[in-house]
């Protein structure tokens, strides 16, 4: 087996590596290995080289690196970033590939790096948190199978994001929706209704509703709740605020409403998410010294 970086090896058929980096460093030489790699940037910026192509990664970038293809990551500005990497062998996913032959399409498709929107980041990060939760407890019953099911979901999601080869010309984005989405992104913590948004942009509520559904795939309440829950996830990971304080900071006046929407969007309660995030932090700290010495990503 080829090595990662300066000698680290994947132990078993799959492995997860996560780390928070605050100092500048780069992988000076490209390397290859005979297993697949999925790289997700949770925060910050990096430059990723796959073969002779360079990709600028930002928060929410999801990269699929094929086996035996030279690659490396390098510092971007600022250097601080947090990333999660999944490694797995053919043998680990072989049974799923037999059932779904194009499961590994993300590694051979036209877009090896996907830029995820808010809703997609929430979905992917939820999968990744569950993966970490499974990976960190080696005695959990059905650990490998459940991890494989989560990996399969991630690969199917990414495969569906690949271009289908259609030559149909893309329609230009309505300029109104850009302004509406930006306003929601900037002010989701404040009280906000569809009627208020429509009035602000001199449009009818029904028209705004249709625009949001067409260009984001979500109704106004769904899009607003997703923005709020995404921010609440960050606060749960990075602060020690009480649940009621977090709910208020992201725009919920009712803790019951907050809990209901959090579970609807993430599939778990805020408390469950907080425990999984704490588990992720534990794994991050546990892996960080070895990561810095051996991987140099």
UniProtKB/TrEMBL annotation:
It comes from the Bacteria. The keyword Transcription regulation applies. SMART domains: HTH_ARAC. PANTHER family: ARAC-FAMILY TRANSCRIPTIONAL REGULATOR (PTHR43280), HTH-TYPE TRANSCRIPTIONAL ACTIVATOR RHAS (PTHR43280:SF28). Keywords: DNA-binding, Transcription, Transcription regulation. The keyword Lyase does not apply. This is AraC family transcriptional regulator.
